[in-house]
Design brief:
The protein has 5 helices and 8 strands. The chain has helices spanning 11-19, 41-45, 66-76, 102-118, 152-168; strands at 2-8, 24-32, 52-59, 84-85, 88-89, 95-97, 126-127, 134-135. A 6-stranded mixed β-sheet has the order 7-6-1-3-2-8. Strands 4-5 form a two-stranded antiparallel ribbon. Helix 1 (11-19) packs across helix 5 and helix 3 crosses helix 4 (102-118).
Length: 175
């Protein structure tokens, strides 16, 4: 098993997408990229910690490759929006990849270049040095499968991302 850390706006949305991807065994929401030790959700939401809302994806590279993980990531959120996703605005909602090795850094840069070559707008997704990972509070984990189904924000935001996943990455969706 391998891991990748990505941030594509609200972690509830990104987590919901990757829970439906074949070869992914675990998705954990959390915070990365900032300078505040052990941040809370409330602190990260202020935009003052430097952290991004991210997910740590555990996957089987024999089923889905790291380049495919990055392609799904770039293809299911808007990597052209700087420090925002839709109505979520601030550096905590930035589009970023946090490689865990030099090889992952190369794959991240290649994925962004691939996305840019295939699309008319350029991605602003950053490739940032992975700092310490802080798991989000328990109530954020598997959010879409529980509270998210009753949250108007999630109901408006997550289904379109899941539709993008099913439309653009049909062979990568769990049965």
């Amino acid at each position: 098993m391998e891991q990748a850390i990505i941030a594509g706006g609200c972690f509830w949305c990104t987590e919901a997408v990757f829970r439906d991807v074949v070869g992914v065994s675990e998705v954990e929401s959390g915070y990365i990229g900032g300078d505040k030790p052990n941040p809370t959700y409330k602190e990260v939401c202020t935009g003052t910690t430097g952290h991004a809302e991210g997910i740590r994806v555990t996957f089987d590279p024999a089923v889905i490759s790291l380049p495919e993980i990055f392609d799904v990531f770039l293809g299911t959120h808007d990597p052209t929006q700087l420090n925002r996703q839709g109505n979520d605005v601030g550096t905590q909602y930035r589009s970023a990849i946090f490689p865990l090795s030099d090889a992952q850094r190369e794959e991240a840069e290649a994925a962004i270049a691939r996305w840019n070559a295939e699309n008319s707008s350029e991605a602003v997704t950053t490739v940032e040095t992975a700092s310490e990972w802080y798991p989000a509070e328990d109530y954020h984990q598997e959010y879409w499968d529980g509270e998210g189904q009753r949250n108007p924000y999630c109901l408006a935001t997550i289904p379109p991302k899941l539709m993008k996943l099913r439309k653009s990455f049909q062979s990568k969706v769990k049965a």
